[in-house]
Amino acid sequence: MTEYNFEGDFSNLSERQLEYINKVVLEQNLKVNKVVFNSFGQAGDNFGANVKRISIEGENGSMKMIIKIAAVDEIVQVLPKLVALQKAARVPEEEHLRYAKCYGSLDEAPNEVIMLEDLKESGHIMLDKYEPLQDDVVRNILKTFAIYHSLSHVLKNKEPATYKCFEIKLRDVWSVMSATPEYTNNFKGIDDATVSIVENETHKDIVKNRITNMFKLVLKLVKEENTKYSVIQHGDAWTNNILFKLVDGEVGPSTMIDYQGARRNNPVMDILYMIFNGTDYETRKNNFYNWLDYYHSELDKSLSYFSLKADVIYPRDQLDADVKKYSELIFGVVLFTSNILNRDVNETKEVIDNMEHSGLTELISSMANTKMKAESENRARKKIEGIIDSYTEFGFFDHFQIK
């Protein structure tokens, strides 16, 4: 193995990955003395990613980066393009889409690695995943969604060939999984585990088979999708994948991270996924439809910089119709995520340790067979019951297509 000025735990990195990391580090012109590898957060912070933080120390200064050991996503190219559109239209900087700078990416299977800006160094924080997001925070995120989604429409409108190129390259993993029985059959155990969490018999009937049914819904919705309203979605915008800049001690602008789920989809999938994974019943009860109003107004504001109107690009009545249409799929998705997002650090580590490999089959089996602790199960139960109450109140169950 080639000698580098590396310290810490980098044992799970290949020689080719280390060679590439060293190359990118040297390009920063810091006259490097040493590079220290550290773990990033705790198990479950970003469940699907193998992530490390590196500290670079040199004669000309120091800096930190985030290393993601994962397949390189096309989104690395998409985000700078979207901001370039804003700059060309002279959109005020405070309205620009925020994202972590990419210092480099290696797309050579099986040695893929992405090197990103460490946003913690610029005063960004991650909120507590167990604490429900409050109204001001939700609005902050919805503004970010509105900007992000609007730029898909702008790119589609101004440079359709470029948009189509990105759209094709972003893989729709859920559609592939949904058409593959060897994957979908593994989710029956999660369905059974979810039913066992719920105590109310009526609620048990409501959640039964909802996770396995979501794959039928994915295929159905893909066939029915009106691509006129589709955008490049984030795909996994839950609490730990959204960082916030602290401004005078208050939560300020949000930045989405971990775009590995990015693909073409309806924009309400991002909105509903964030709301039903991140908020509680009471906050939704008081704010849900106001949130939809706010998202649409911010979408219109962002589109206006490009002489486009939300009433034409994505009318409000279409937003309302899509919320109802996609609510059934989100219900199954959030039942599924409740199994892992409500576990504590040790439990999440146990799930990971119980995986023989890093494949989806082993992950799902481990989630189904690794029993939740009482406290985590109570969190999951409260989450599920609150979602059922919201769906009942909003009348979403009336629009379910698979009974």
TrEMBL record:
<dbReference type="Pfam" id="PF02958">
    <property type="entry name" value="EcKL"/>
</dbReference>
<dbReference type="InterPro" id="IPR004119">
    <property type="entry name" value="EcKL"/>
</dbReference>
<feature type="domain" description="CHK kinase-like">
    <location>
        <begin position="114"/>
        <end position="305"/>
    </location>
</feature>
<dbReference type="InterPro" id="IPR015897">
    <property type="entry name" value="CHK_kinase-like"/>
</dbReference>
<dbReference type="InterPro" id="IPR011009">
    <property type="entry name" value="Kinase-like_dom_sf"/>
</dbReference>
<protein>
    <recommendedName>
        <fullName>CHK kinase-like domain-containing protein</fullName>
    </recommendedName>
</protein>
